[in-house]
């Protein structure tokens, strides 16, 4: 009996140590994510508002995405830490029971809808460039719609949350209702937006590929016409396109930049007649090439943002589908998997500013300028 108690004590000590290190790791990640998310998303908003040429429809939608991520950092992460410390009790009161977790779901919905709106805006701008860009009113309506749809989708969840046995828990009227809501949330929060985004970016990619092929074809044709300076005559002899045949047979001064000397002998003197050399062929449109390169870079950045979003939210989607439609509760590591899913949602809130800084020169310069100015002002305050 004593040995058994000793083994149990050792086991309990090991489990306690394991969960302690798990919590330390979790809190460390929360802290890093919180700092990066707050600083990064605030910088995104400031750069866009302080740079006149960046005040575009797409960037205002990026502001909406940054606000969603900022809400996750400011509202969800601190309270989640409090709940983990106070577990298994609910220390935040009945009102927060109906606000906290629905708010997290709401901003996640808003991020999904905003990314879908950005993809449709890119589709409209690239595939149908003759259509006018969204006005300020239309952009405001789009942003308001993302929040309104997110609120409608999260409302049933907020209504079923109640304080039960000292903790905030769901109280659905029927077991099938929670299954239907979980599946509906997966479809409208994750699957459907990603389907729309995938379709829009495939269409944009096809359009950009066609544009690149057309520009390359035009440049190739123009390059041949401007670089080849000789042709073969009927006798198989090379005659310059840039000089008439009389120039080849007579000794004339070197041709000028756009004119050739057609030399004729008159009274023993060489007479030079200036005639047009050739008409320049239409060159490649440099503005069009520059616009294509810029659009392609923007598309790469946006596709990367969506890819990270899909990856970061996938574990949380899987864990709740498994919980409602499978046997997740019987898996011994389910709670760890659930924690991992929540952490990945939080990580998504801080990754976008890092992607903007790494893949977009405008944001990178804006971030650098703001940080340098703030650092100088901070240094001058102590001088």
From TrEMBL:
Keyword Transmembrane helix: yes
SMART domains recorded: 7TM_GPCR_Srsx (SM01381)
Pfam family, one: 7tm_1
Residues annotated as domain G-protein coupled receptors family 1 profile: 40-356
Coiled-coil spans in chain: none
Subcellular location: Membrane
Keyword Membrane: yes
PANTHER family, sorted: LEUCOKININ RECEPTOR, LEUCOKININ RECEPTOR-RELATED
Family that this chain belongs to: Belongs to the G-protein coupled receptor 1 family.
Record protein name field: G-protein coupled receptors family 1 profile domain-containing protein
Lineage: Eukaryota, Metazoa, Cnidaria, Anthozoa, Hexacorallia
